[in-house]
Give the backbone structure.
Amino acid sequence: MRFHDLRNCAATIMLAAGIDMKVISATLGHSRHSFTADVYTGVVPEVAHAAAEATIAAIPRATRRA
C-alpha cells in the first residue's frame, strides 16, 4: 500500500465519521478546504447526500398562497 493510499483512507474515514472538512483539510495539508471537499465528498456518497439535504433545509421556502 502506498502512502497516498493511506492518506486517502484516513480522509475517507474522517469524513464518514463526521469530522469537519476544515480539520480534514488541515490534517492532509491542503491549502483550501474546498479542494478537500471536491476530492473526497464523491468518495462517500452518503456524506455528499447529507450535505445536499442540509443545504436544502437551510434555504427558506417561499410562502405559498392557498
